[in-house]
Every structure is written in structure tokens, then in C-alpha cells.
Amino acid sequence: MTPSSDEADPTVAQLQEQLAAATVSAREAFRDTTRLIRLLSVLGEPASPETLVDQTLTVLSEVFYADVACVAHVIADRLVVTGCCGLPEDDQAFTRGLPLGSGAAQALAGHVVARNGGLLDPADAPGSIGRLGIRSAVWVPLSPQSYTSNLLILYRSSDEPFTPSDIQVLTSVAVRLRLAVDERERSAVVERLARYGHRLARHLAPEPLLDEAVELLRKLTAADQAWIVTLDETQARLRAQRGLSSEVISSWPRPLGEHDEPAGPGVLRVPVLRDETISALLFVSRQPPRPFARDTWEIMTIFANYLGVALTNAELYRTLEERATRDSLTSLANRSVIAAHLEQALLQRSTSHVGLLFCDLDGFKSVNDRLGHEAGDELLQQVAVRLRRRVRPTDLLARFGGDEFVVVIDGVTQLAEVAEVGRRIADDLNDVFVVSGEQVHVTASIGGVLGTQGTSTPSAMLRDADAAMYVAKGRGPGQVEVFDDAASHRSLDRLDLRSELRHALDRDQLALHYQPIFSLNTGRILAFEALLRWTHPHHGSVSPDVFIPLAEDTGAIVEIGRWVLDQACRQLAIWHRLPHWRTLAMAVNISPAQLRGTKVAEETLGVIRRTGLEPSDIWLEITEHSYLRHDVTEYATTLRAAGVRFALDDFGTAYSNLAYLKRLPIEILKIDRSFVSGVTGPELDLSIVRAIIAIADSLGLSCIAEGIETEEQRVAVQELGCRLGQGFLLSPPLPPEEATELLRTEYPLDAVRVPIR
């Protein structure tokens, strides 16, 4: 049976309704899909976080027919708009923010809130937004957490509500927007971290480094407050800050253990490690307290690593700068600072002048030789302390080198003021020092000069003060002299000689003369002493008392000493080939600088043997003033075992250290000419010579009297028991040819070596 049309109508209507509903659903699904695809395409585009938010809000306003689409951040119970489509850029919502309505307040708890019509409270659309006639709104948290501070908000002027499908799409977009922004911000932060690392690395001083670091830290973490605390052994110190109140700032420094801030959602702390030790702490906070982004701690840790490296580099630079400008022994400025300071002082326009004092210690070498280098260093440190007490804080005190100090005096008007300061310094130093448990006494020879702005130069002032110092030293220890033209000429001559000496050997300006050493009992020659002579093409014959110290100062003495030993051995080898002179000996002076090195003994023996001599043919003369280290003792012992003989030169002129006679294989004592010249005069010199000869006899040593110039002196030392002598009375130093001729006319007693005793 066919159903009637009346029975079919309800079914058709039902189908039509279902079709209509399906069509609407399909249309809505298509619309939602289209919306989502469009939004996802925007979210997938490469853009900065700010551009991404702006583009997303523009599309949201279009696809949801919203008058206003914005992202807002809660600060102190107000909604501060951080991105918006639909409001002018100068709207106060971007600066002062908007009152927090009930809809936004509920959404901050992590719920999506949608209101329209009568359910929309006027407080939900405050300020300029309310003047748009808003009738519908939705608030979507940007974070699924139970507490959030960022909302996505859409406002409509129509009564059309936001449907569940709208809310579903908006929730998905909000989550994706937050993830996309986080990802881009993370990439931006990584880039900024790299840039910030370079910015930190450019600082070479801690204070500007920490000041910029705290500002960068605040920007990186989007914090309201940021501060950096450094830790030492007892205290924590606030070194840089942004946003802290004056009350908090005044509470620093704090004892260790009281520097931590209470933990909470609005405070983060990260340590700065250096050599696996916490050297500083980074703090950031938000007011009112609210959580930071999830990766903020990781960002701060990376930043802390950059800061740790930058602080290490700054400290290394400070150390290098200090080494470059500070004397490591005394902590005074070094010579590199002097010229710079003088140059700056001489550039100042002033009616006053610049004074310079050049101080050289008298007697320092004796202390250094007698007590050792460590005692010498201690003495220099004590001298530096006394000088600091004398000079003003505005003056520059520097160690020029060795036992030389310089004082630059600002604001003086005349040379007499410079001299007066010099005298006060000399008086301060002219007192006993206790070094290594012993009392020692040194003085200072001081030269002064006055510099004038605009005309004087640092090099000229140093040269002139040095010249004046040498004039003072020539007058005796502890003297002060100010610069004059004569001193300038002497200074120039000395500098010229110092430079020329480096080339004297290559230019054949050095030569050896030989002075015979006689047996006073027989009048026969037993040995020669090799004496170095320097003939300069302009200065003529330069005294050994002048150029030997220069050679020791410049280090040229090592090469020159090696040449002297070689030439003396060659000459003795020639004389040994003369009839009857095979037993002749040669005395050669050696400097302490020649005794430094691990193979010195082997090299010395090598020179002797290459010329065909025996080690016993050579006497090595060591000056008593020399600092004789323990390795020198080993050197001497090795050579003595091979047959080389040792003489102690100038015996009695320095601190007579009898320990040298015990430590070294000495066979000969040479009585200094200053005592020999006085044996016919005051009883004191005669007693000293008698004592020296008695010491030599008791130890089984020989004595040589130096500087015998009169027959009376020869008779006196011979009567005292001295068997050997040399001096102008017997023979002056002779060139090789004249010495050879002397040997040809002088016939020894026999062909065997005469005992030196």
C-alpha cells in the first residue's frame, strides 16, 4: 500500500531540518577550518614576536568580526595592552593600562570567559573600548596554567555572542600564539645573549661591566628589578642595580649568609661561577610578584656564564695592566709610568713647575752580596715604605729599576723646593734597617731637576736628574745635588759610553795589558795579571772603574769576560813557548755575572785546554764584593779539582766574610792597594795588613800586595811577611809586546814553578 502524501510530509520536513542543520554545521566547520588555516598560516610565518602578535590580532579581528583584538598583560591590577588591532597607538591602554574587570579577573585564573548583552558588565569594557559600544567580549588565557598574567581579548559592538566553536578556535590560537611567541622570543633571546656576550667582553674594568650587565639582565628577563651582588671572604656587596629602592640599597653590604632574597614566583637568583667558586649572584624580581617565563632561569644561567668570563677577562686585564705599570716587588709604579706621568704633568698649563728626584741607594750592593738577594729584596721593600711616608699623595713615587727610585713632585715653584724634598728623603733613609735579622745601613745619592711646562721633556728631565745624582754620588754617600750644565755633560758622556760599550768588542777597541806579579824575596816574575783596557775613538782611554760597572749593568760583561779569558790563555800559551817560562801563571778577573749557568765550569776548562794550557796555569780572581751564591761554590770546587787556582781580590775592602775562605778553595789573598798605600803612614793600615797576612798564614794561604808604588811600601809589606807583590814600582801594566820583551830579558831562577807562597 502506498502511503498518502499526508503521511510523507513529516518525514520530508524532518529530513529538511536535518539537512539544514547539517548545512549549518558544515558551513560553521568550513568557517572554523578556514579561520584556523588562515590563523595557522600567519603563526607559521617567520616574523619577530611583535610582528607576529600584530599580524595575528589583525586576522583575528577580521575572521571574528571583532572591533578590538588585543593582548594584555596584568600589572598592579591593571590591564596594560601590549599589542592591539582596533585602538590608536597613543591610547592610554598601552601606557597606563585599563581597570581590571570581572571577566578579565576570572580569565586570569585560567578559564575562558565569554559575555554578551546584559551579562557584559560596563567594567568589562573600560576606557576608550567602552566608547565603541561594545556588546560582546571574550577573554582567553594565553597560558593553560592556573595562574597567568597574559590574556587574549576580543571585543564586538554587536550582540552576537562568541560561540563554543569560536571559543574552541580562540583557545587553540591562544595556545599556538603563546608557543610561537615563546619560540621566537627564545630565538631572539639567544641572539641577544650572543650580542650581550660580546658587549660584556668589551669592558676591561669591573664597574662599567657590572653596570651594563645589570641593565642587560633586566631586559633579557623582562624584570622590574635586577641587581648583582659580589661575594668576598666575609661580605656580600651590591655592585649594580636597577629598580631597587634607596632603602634597600642602603642595606648593603651584608654579611655572608644574609644576602639571599626570599624565594617566590617573582624572584629568581642565579650564581656566577669562576673557577668552580661562586663569585657573584644575579637577582631579578617582578613587582607585584608574578612568575617569569619558563626558560628565564636557563637564560640567566647562560648570561651568568658570559658574565663570569667577562669578569675573569677584566681581572686578567687589570692584572696585566698592574704588571705593566707596577713594580712587582715594591708595588710602586714602575718606570713605564714615570714618562707618561711626566708627559701629562708637563702638558698642564700652570704657573708652577714639575720637580723630579732620582734616588740611588748607596751600600745596597754590599747588603745584597753579603746577605743574599732575598735580603736585598726585603731592603728595597722597606725603602719603598719609608719613601711612601715622605712623599705626598699627589706625588708619584716609582721604582726606576734595581736600587733606583724616582719621585715626581707636582706644583713646585723653584729648584730649592726640589732640593729640600730630596734632603728630607735622604735624612729618612739615613737610618738603620733591620734585614734578615741584621742591622744594615744604607744611604741614598739623590739628584734633582726642575721641569717647566711647554719646554721640558720627560727624557731630558730623567737624564738631567740622573746626571745630578752621579754628581751627588761623587761627593760621597747620602748627598743631594740638583742639576747643572756640568752634570748634563757627564750624563751624556755616560749614556754614550753605555751604548758604545756594546760594540767595543766588535770594533777591536778592547785590549789586554799584563802586569807582572813578582816574588818580593827574589825579584822574579811568577805570574801576570790580565787587565782590560778600552780605547774609545772619541773619549780616549776609558777607566776600568767607569766601563766595568757599565758592562756589568748591561750584561756585556759575560761576552767580554769570555773574550778576556780566551785572549789571556792564548797569550800565556805563547809565553810558555819561550825558554824557561813554562811555569809562568796568568791571573784573570771574573765577574759574578760570568758565574751564572749550569755549564760554566766546563766552558771555562774548555777555553783553558783549547789553548794547550793546564788548569793549574790559571788563577781566577774573585772580588770580595761579589755575591757568591751556592752554585758558585760548586763551580769553584769543580775547577779547583781540575787544578785551577783561586784568588780573593780586594780582600778587606768590603764586609770581610771569612765564610768565603771556608766555602771557596781560595789559595791567594790580594791585599787591596788602599791598605798597601797606608802601610808607611797611620798605624791602623799597618795593623790591617798585618792582620790579613796573619789570617793567610794561619790558613796556609799566600798574600799578594797590590799597588806597591814606593820602595818604602815594598820594604814594609815584605817585612810584614808578604812574599808576593805587584804595582808601578815593580812594573806597570804592559802591552803584550812589551811584556814579552820583559820576559826575554828577565831570566827565572829555574825551570820549575816557584811556589807562590
UniProtKB/TrEMBL annotation:
SUPFAM superfamilies xref list: EAL domain-like, GAF domain-like, Nucleotide cyclase
UniProt cross-references to PANTHER family, sorted A to Z: CYCLIC DI-GMP PHOSPHODIESTERASE PDEF, SIGNALING PROTEIN YKOW
Entry's Gene Ontology molecular function annotations: cyclic-guanylate-specific phosphodiesterase activity
NCBIfam families: GGDEF
Ranges of residues in domain GGDEF: 352-485
Record-given protein name: Diguanylate cyclase (GGDEF)-like protein
Domain EAL: 494-747
